[in-house]
């Protein structure tokens, strides 16, 4: 088996048993399990776990963001993304994210995101 195959198999195993992972708070209602790097600091990848009703406010992508929805669903102003959906946000794009019923996603960032609004919704 190659390193890629082994890493992919491990990722699926981790995602299948999220309660066995070490989670850290990313934002209120959103936790992360880092795969490499640190979210918000350069290139990074993580599993993100959204509680039901969790939101991520409007943010701007300084690099590519790839989101693969593994469980549940999330939505933004462009659409609704159920399990199995892959969302690619190119540099310069912006959106907010909501998960009405909660979800687990694989997030891969080539660069940090920048929030358009602060925690109180102010620009």
From TrEMBL:
InterPro entries: ChrR-like_cupin_dom (IPR025979), RmlC-like_jellyroll (IPR014710), RmlC_Cupin_sf (IPR011051). It comes from the Bacteria. Gene3D superfamilies: Jelly Rolls. Residues 16-106 form the ChrR-like cupin domain. This is ChrR-like cupin domain-containing protein. It comes from Immundisolibacter cernigliae.
């Amino acid at each position: 088996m190659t390193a890629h195959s082994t890493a992919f198999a491990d990722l699926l195993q981790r995602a299948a048993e999220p309660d066995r992972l070490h989670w850290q708070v990313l934002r209120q209602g959103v936790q992360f399990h880092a795969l490499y790097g640190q979210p918000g600091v350069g290139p990074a990848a993580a599993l993100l776990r959204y509680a039901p009703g969790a939101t991520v406010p409007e943010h701007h992508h300084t690099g590519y963001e790839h989101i693969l929805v593994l469980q549940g669903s999330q939505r933004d102003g462009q659409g609704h993304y159920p399990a199995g959906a892959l969302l690619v946000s190119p540099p310069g794009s912006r959106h907010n994210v909501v998960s009405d019923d909660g979800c687990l996603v694989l997030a891969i960032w080539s660069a940090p995101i920048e929030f358009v609004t602060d925690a109180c919704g102010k620009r």
